[in-house]
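Entry type: protein chain
Record version: 2
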Amino acid sequence: METKPLGTSEVNITPIIMGTWQAGKSMWVGIEDAETIKGLQAGFEAGITTVDTAEVYGKGHSERIVAQALGEVRDQVVYATKVFANHLKYDQVIQACESSLKKLKTDYIDLYQIHWPSGKFNSEIVPIEETMSALNKLQEQGKIRAIGVSNFSGSQLAEASQYGRIDSLQPPYSLFWRQVEQDAMPYCVEHNISIIAYSSLAQGLLTGKFGLEHQFEEGDHRSKNRLFNGDNYQRAQQALAQLRLIAERHHCTLAQLSLAWLIAQPQTNAIAGFRNSDQAVQNTHATEVKLSANELQEIDQIGRLVTDHLDDNPVMWNF
């Protein structure tokens, strides 16, 4: 799989990135460590060399699983992880990074990201200048290679950029969730900031495997995802029926079609989760789906059957 530069940094990432929120197990059900490890290794063998995790995923369990799966090929893999909103004071950022380095069993983190702006989830408000100062220090020390932010608005991204080079924004972004296009995407394009889309398959909705009457098991946080509830879910099913026709033309899955559309958007790369090695490998084939300009527009319009009815709240869940 071809790679491309992460922002203006020297880090090169794959357009499809392995997501490992589920590897932490917390807020998910039916996740097995052994299957996750096999999936990470299979994805790497199939060409995905970039993996995204975070300190908060299972309180570090996800980071440990990434290290277990990919430690032997560390020099060929890009590790992206995140510091949570409750660790954004200067000393906390330094300490959180050291902790992630240990869990990932590495001397450096390729991309270190602020997971949520300070103040989110009742966290203490910390001036972005203080947080960026710590990240700049870590970069000077060679402990991190590039700095990114996640869940920042366009204005928050611009403010953070006053205090250091930001090379990536990680927003929720999929065919069914597109607020970033109107908000931060123009700034990212203008300043050569890579967009690393999370929930790129709308947490599995865009795979088409969830029927009209689907109910999540207790403990699965997706039951609180606004796309899986009420009229949003009904509209999504109507859109998926139309998308299936295009997927059939390309002899690909709905997931591959949705990822192919997403990575064709400006500056955009897609984080895709998986439960097993087959799903991880299937995700890689999205790069082989070549969509014409007319097809991209057709898919765009189908996606708007869902997105035109959403409000401006950028958070996908009603936690």
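Comment: Residues 230-249 form the longest helix (20 residues).
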